[in-house]
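User: quick one, fold this
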Amino acid sequence: MFRLDTWDPGPATPYGILALGLFMAGCGSGTFLTGNTTQAMAGLTPGTLGMVNGFRLMAMNVGVAVSVALTLGVLTSAVTPQRQPAGLTAVPASLRRAAIASTPPISRSSPNA
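Assistant:
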């Protein structure tokens, strides 16, 4: 039997478990956001609906972007060069130098000049 209190997620986690978790998160988000947005927009005048909804969507997207950045930062902070998987290697210094050398300089003049 599957017990959540003893589950240790890792690379061997079955896709079905991951899919179930994503499905539950999507259902919860959809259920909450629908009613919440309806109630928040109900008290507004028609002239302000677009502005308020745009701000709401901006705040929601910023939250998603920040949470992804923080999560990836925390998850990858423990990956030192010694602990990297065999297929994941750092970019060689020679390739970095070649990429930088082939990048055109940034012009401070107008694009039409």
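User: anything notable?
Assistant: Residues 26 and 32 are 10 Å apart (CA to CA).
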